[in-house]
Amino acid sequence: MDEPSALRWSGTYALVAPPRSLTGDKIILPQSALQQLLSITSTTDPFALHENTHQLPHPLTFRLVNTQNGNTVYAGIREFSSPEETLALSPFLLEALAVNPQHLATELVDDAAILQIVVHAEKLSKGTYVRLRPLEAGYNPDDWKSLLERHLRDNYTCLTRNTTLSVQGVRGETFQFLVDQIAPQGDGICVVDTDLEVDIEALNEEQARETLRQIVSTSTKHNPKDSQLDIWKDVAGQVSPKSYADYHLASWNRTQPLTITISEIQQADSLDLFVTPRSARQRALPRDSIHVFGDFGPAKDGTKSVTIAPTNAEMEDAESISISVASQGNPFK
């Protein structure tokens, strides 16, 4: 099937304050914009008695231009429900366009001081690769890659080169990543319905060294020397507040159910247990955002456990088992 022709449409709008639910790279346009887009894409179907049909590109992508400073960014559409002649942008887009909050209109007014944003309909190539660079040291790619992929999938239609993504971590912290490189080459890519490879690389050698130091320090601090588990021997360990203690089980009886237990939990909701069979398709350490098995309910009689049947499909091709104990607050042993 032939690719649809490029959609030629643009409009100029005054900015209004966005609703809190507007996230990622999404915009809200007025209903009249949808009507204009539909009229442009109307076609005649010979099998529908010459009635007009409308086929909007999927997904709809736009290039936004700040008329005050020339900044540009690509965006996807949330809905067509803003007041006429106005446009709502997510916080990410406002930051990318360097918009001063004072330039947001509180109501529809004819005021030259209100910032105007030009919106162009523009089709983007499907992205195949993105390289993200953390803006601070200490990011462990094993922890962040799966979280980032899910964040992009849930919140973004496009990625624009040289913009900064803010991603909330599993403990409520916020981390920032620079969109440093994309493929195919250009200023932006579409990330919907595409197999996107995500790489995380340090900004420079100094940051890479500091990140490695922090990862090693955290691992040494949180994990006892015997973090290599043996099914015949109990292990005592400790985990710092709002962090993880990671363990590794290399050998077990693959014909019997495997039960992993943490005991002597003093507060019912203080610790969580996450387990992931490690294989060629699953390399990330277990975290509350990405794991295969877990017990994150209240502890019963000071104990939490996960039991895995030998016939469980997730155990196929398992090279080893990664186990993580997560602390929700004060340090525990």
Question: Top keywords for this entry?
Answer:
single chain; 333 residues; alpha+beta; Barwin-like endoglucanases; Vcp-like ATPase, Chain A, domain 2; Jelly Rolls; 3 domains; six-stranded mixed beta barrel; five-stranded mixed beta sheet; 4 helices; 21 strands; elongated; polyubiquitin modification-dependent protein binding; Ufd1-like_Nn; UFD1_N1
Characterize the structure shown.
There is one protein chain. By secondary structure, the chain is an alpha+beta fold. It has three domains: 10-121, Barwin-like endoglucanases; 129-217, Vcp-like ATPase, Chain A, domain 2 (Roll); 223-327, Jelly Rolls. It has helices at 31-40, 91-96, 141-155, 205-222, and strands spanning 10-16, 26-30, 42-44, 52-54, 61-66, 72-82, 86-89, 116-121, 129-134, 158-160, 164-168, 174-183, 188-190, 197-200, 228-229, 244-249, 258-262, 271-278, 293-295, 304-308, 320-327. Strands 1-7-2-6-5-8 form a six-stranded mixed β-barrel. Mean pLDDT is 82; it is low at 44-51 and 220-226. Keywords: Ubl conjugation pathway. Residues 22-104, 126-202 form the Ubiquitin fusion degradation protein UFD1 N-terminal subdomain domain. GO terms for molecular function: polyubiquitin modification-dependent protein binding.
